[in-house]
Amino acid sequence: MNFFHLSHTDLDGYTCQFISKTAMKDGYFVNANYGEEVRVRIDEILAKIEESESQEAFFLITDLNLALEEASYLDERIKSMDKKVKLQLLDHHASGLETAEKFEWYHLDVLKSASLITYQYFSKEHEIQALDTIVKAVNAVDIWLQEDPLFEYGKVLMRLVDEAKEINRYTFNHENLLYKHYMFQQALPYLGRPQGHIELDEQICHIKKSFFLKGHNDTFDNLLTRYIIDLLLTHKDRMTITFQGNKGILTFGIQNSSIVGNAFLKSAPEYHFFMNVSPRGTFSLRADNKMDVSKMAEIIAGGGGHPNASGGRLKDFKEFFVYEDLKNFVQNLLTQKGQ
Q1: In the prediction, which pLDDT does 270 show?
Q2: Would you identify the CATH topology of the domain 2-212?
Q3: Rounded mean pLDDT of 85-89?
Q4: Is residue 36 within 8 Å of 318, Cβ to Cβ?
């Protein structure tokens, strides 16, 4: 049975996936914030279920309350499939009460965090008791139990996980989740210590840096840049775009795009330009004396800048949540404008 888990983009949501991954080991994990992304991610998972060779699937949603329309759509799609799909939603938001009353797969408990609900769900059949204390800490901070002795630890853990955004989840979903789950794993030893929350707070930078440390030590920015470059070199085939015969690579919402762009072009001399698009439609271009990206920026969006560093804003840009959708949009634009 293939396992698919959609969860929210906060500490509670990521903890749900840390729990399910501990129990299920393998699966497809993705996250969504509220709004349009929820429907996009549901469709993404449904497509993967339909494409899979397996005739059975387990689709779990946590820490996301679905509107009645969204839940009805999902229920109908699952029932129309020629496959056996187990659907389960575990949530704690009171706004989902109406929906929960209509669908048996929609479990709602407003007195607990979604991670505690998820932990109790999986602990019935899986040996995951080692996560008991960290789940209680997340529960304390998520539903704001200030008198709970684990509340302060939960606050620090929230900052550690929520601020671990160095690996963009749109461009590198799998690696982003590995990074988040690494934060949980590294935080576990501080549980139960008298001043564990203070020790964890003091070690945040070290913990984050240790994920990127492969070999000799360096500054955090340099280690992160090297890691991102390695990812780009690994995934460059699926990320390649072209403009007027020039070969480029497209990223989506990454940090320090100018530093990463210049470093990538040095590492991959067969590429002529580097393009990063933000979630709001602004873009930056970098080149390494192989083409004039200021002219490219002007042609595609009326932008401009310097021959090796330019940018602008894409017209008719809509909100994207899936990298491949953004890439198709950008490549179609480059092809059309480059004629």
Answers
A1: 97
A2: inorganic pyrophosphatase (n-terminal core) (3.90.1640)
A3: 98
A4: no
